[in-house]
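Q: What does the assembly look like in three dimensions?
Context provided by user:
Components: two
Sequences:
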Amino acid sequence: MSDHAAPHDSAGHEEHSHGGLGKYIAVFAALCFLTTMSFFTYSEAWPWRDQPQVGWAFMMAVSCTKAMLVVLFFMHVWWEANWKYVLTIPAAMMALFLVIMLIPDIGMRNRMVSQERALHMARPADLLLLKEAGTAGPAAEAH
Amino acid sequence: MSSPAISIPHDAGHADGHDDHHGHVHLQYQPGLPLSRGKLIMWLFLSTEIMFFAALLGSYIVLRFGAAIWPKPHHVHLSEPIGAFNTFVLICSSVTVVLALEAAKSNKTGLAKIWMVATFVLGGLFLGVKAYEYQAKFSHGIYPVAPHSRIYERPDLYYGSAVRARLGESAIIERLKEIDEMPAESLSAEQRAARTSLQQIRTMLGDPNQQAFEMAVVADQIAPLPAEGAGGHGGGHAHGINDAFPELQLPIVIPGGNMWASTYFLLTGFHAVHVVVGLIVFAVLLGYTLGPKNAGMIENAGLYWHFVDLVWIFLFPLLYLF
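A: Here is the predicted structure of the complete assembly.
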């Protein structure tokens, strides 16, 4: 692996060792803390027990924070030159796009129903039979 | 921070020779980006890996949130604390590989080797815990692929006939005879209760004069699915026939279980393969002197390892906590 830029890599940056032990330990402590935080949704103090989506969003936010810490400090991206934006900004755009696409189309697809879908959607078989027999109760009207 | 990407790095060896060559075209190698080829390639490779895992994770999310029903963690013997411990192990290994790199750059080759060995050991520990988790699934009949996987989605006629077929196998008939003949003192309380259930099930499934019954009763005797998980993994889950006599390996009912097993084993399996590759890379690196000359190699191996940790950071909440 001999290439011209190798000496550039090890001696080219401002400090000899970027992070220093202290910074790495601080990031490690933050990561451990965040990992325990992801269990916070299981505790008694979590206020949004009836809305699991809040819990999921919280866990994803925790994961993204942990990921950012690993990428910035352990993978040294904090100290890299501007090429890192070429890498990260399109990736972040794709990630955001994916989430924006998936949540309404997949995550919420059972919440809202167009009239056409409502007309053609399947009904429980026994309700159909009851309706034919003319003895369907108020439950049939709700569908 | 260095200046825009296309300028020549100020400390690359040729900078001081540049001014001496005014009347003479002296072509120099200019890297397109201020990073080494190896690092550039590693980042490009990591972006393909991101695409790989994004595809798998995306399909997991679609399947999980599109599923009519999904098993609770204690139904499939999934333990969140073990997953959290694995996360902690991988985070520690990320720290040790970074410390190995720093030691190598400071020419502390002995220390670098120690940190590298620590990373290797922690990676191996992760795999060991994963193997223990897989064993917990396998021992309860949860495999990625049917028919090895004994999971049925509903306690219907197909499930009933599968249980009856299993009870009719010659090896199982022998074992059932042995169980019936064991004196009550040699069995634990759980096994005695299971033996009674087993006899009831055999009557229900085999007796031609049996009255109509709910197949769910059979499923509940073999592998009960309590609403609340009592205690931790292994210690507190409800016990059925498959727990008292695991060698019988009767089919079980876990609604949503097959989809769960497919996605779980696929995601964690591919991640484990990546961990193994990382460990092979570290094993090879341990053969070198870990000094400043090899710091580039260590950095790139470290980049790959951090990526493996990154994937786990996302896998852990999605698989264990959602």
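Follow-up: Chain B has eleven helices and two strands.
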